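Recall from the previous lesson that a structure prediction takes nothing but the amino acid sequence as input. Here we apply that procedure to Aminoglycoside phosphotransferase domain-containing protein from Ascochyta lentis. The sequence below is the only information supplied.
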Amino acid sequence: MGQDLVPDNAILSAIFPHAKPASVTILSKTFDTCRFRAQFDTQPCEHWPMDLVVYMEIFDEVPVLEVVTALGRAANHQFPGLVPETYACKKALTSDGRDVEYTVARYLTGTVTLETVWPSLPTEQKESLVDAVVMAIKQVHTLKNTDPIVKELLADTPFIKSDGGTCIGGPRNGYSENVREFLTHLVEKNQLRRSPTSDIVETAEGVLIHSSLPELGQVLLTHDDIDHLGENIVLSHNDIEPRNISVQAIVAEDGSVSYELVGIVDCHKAGFFPFAFETADKDLSLGNENLFLDWYMFFKEKTRSMIPPGGASEKLIRAVRIITKSKCMQQKTSVMAEFRRRWLEKEGLDLSDDVLTGWERTESSSVTRQEPWVFSLEENIRLYDQVAQDCQ
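The prediction returns the following tokens.
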């Protein structure tokens, strides 16, 4: 079995040829990716701070991090300082011969992730932080893929087509010429080898997306719907969760502590999408990448007005539900999938018929507490351990 990707001597020497880090702290790692903090006693490179964060991943023919870096610059063009500055984006070779792509960015010294403090915050402070995040998102969303500045901000990336137009999608979701192609790619990405999951069919009225499971139904996006979605393609982070939000403690004269937004990190899922796609993805993240129900509910409530009216966005969300659920229901159950199923069940949640609402408490739910956050970190760990044991 292969080893997780870590910053070995070959990597550190390639990234920092002029200074050796005084300390290296691994923040996260998998076989393919690693994020670590590097702190120095002397400046590692001219104009670089002495507290840096490096993200690296196995290079797979097509550059990804160069595009992610460009998207971060585009976000900062709309909201200066929102995304930590990136100083380098290059390639290197590990001591075991693996090609990696890496970025070096400013570490937000003195901050913590919102994920670490969220459970302890009073409701009014949570709501204030969500308001600050939503304000930043709204500012970033003012950049549409049709704006002339996009060609400059994303020059030499796959976003810029040969005819001068701009693709939709992103480095993690793929690049599409238009909304039709984007939907086609989404259906293709969610297929299984041994059985069909969903299909997309051109009709006289538009495109019909239907599940191979009759109970999941179908949705028709008319030509007008597709045109409407295509007119509202905006720069989206696509992973606004507490783990990607950096906050800083502010101590008042009376000793009370509050937190303020400092930045948003990890733009790896970013790209140009209809915002409805991001809000649909938020439904998929709950119980998986996000375990804070009140964060989810605040976010959905405060971004609802950002969904363009007219019905096309609601149809897109339904399409995403059909496509992803068609795959999920036919896959062999994994530990994480079963954990999510039990977590949603214990929270007493079901998907609302109002797709803009997303997950909501059901009337028959046995959860009687009024606050929407139920499970502590320890309870989530116990649930995961139980699921892992049951799935053996």
